[in-house]
Design goal:
Largest sheet: none
Number of strands: 0
Strand content: under 5%
Order of helices and strands: HHHHHHH
Number of domains: 1
Distance between the termini: 69 Å
Length: 148
């Protein structure tokens, strides 16, 4: 199986996990663990297999941008990097969705935040934390009363 074949195969479960986060009801343990643990664990196993099989022969390490470029010039290591991204962003997306659920952020507001996590990782996490934090702040009327 080629790296290109594995990209498509690794995308499918990741997209399914994001669909669960965006569309499925929360609060059902068996459903919540799919995007938070099951799919990221499967992708992590694929990542581990790719790294163990191809890291040593790829050349390059993480010491400089040139070395990272050399490492990712291997299609196998580029695939490993993609799978790493899929696994971690889904796991982080599930964690942020849980936090926003506990802050009572409605799903309509969560959806663009989760899409931002999927597309832009850390930027989406910042947006999720700001969204959650904004809803945990006391109402402005309570703040005005406290200063008077």
């Amino acid at each position: 199986m080629s790296p290109d074949d594995l990209v498509g195969l690794s995308n499918m479960p990741a997209l399914a996990g994001w669909a669960v986060l965006l569309l499925a009801p929360r609060g059902r343990l068996w459903l919540d663990v799919i995007p938070a643990l099951v799919i990221p664990a499967g992708l992590s196993l694929l990542y581990a297999a790719l790294v163990l099989a191809h890291f040593a022969s790829a050349g390059g390490v993480y010491g400089s941008l040139a070395e990272v470029r050399q490492l990712f010039s291997s299609d196998w290591m580029l695939l490993a990097g993609w799978v790493h991204y899929l696994a971690f962003d889904l796991m982080v997306g599930a964690a942020m969705a849980g936090r926003m659920d506990r802050a009572r952020v409605i799903r309509l507001v969560q959806a663009p935040v989760l899409v931002c996590i999927f597309l832009f990782g850390p930027l989406g996490v910042v947006l999720a934390l700001v969204t959650e934090g904004a809803l945990r702040l006391p109402p402005l009327s309570r703040l005005k009363g406290a200063s008077a």
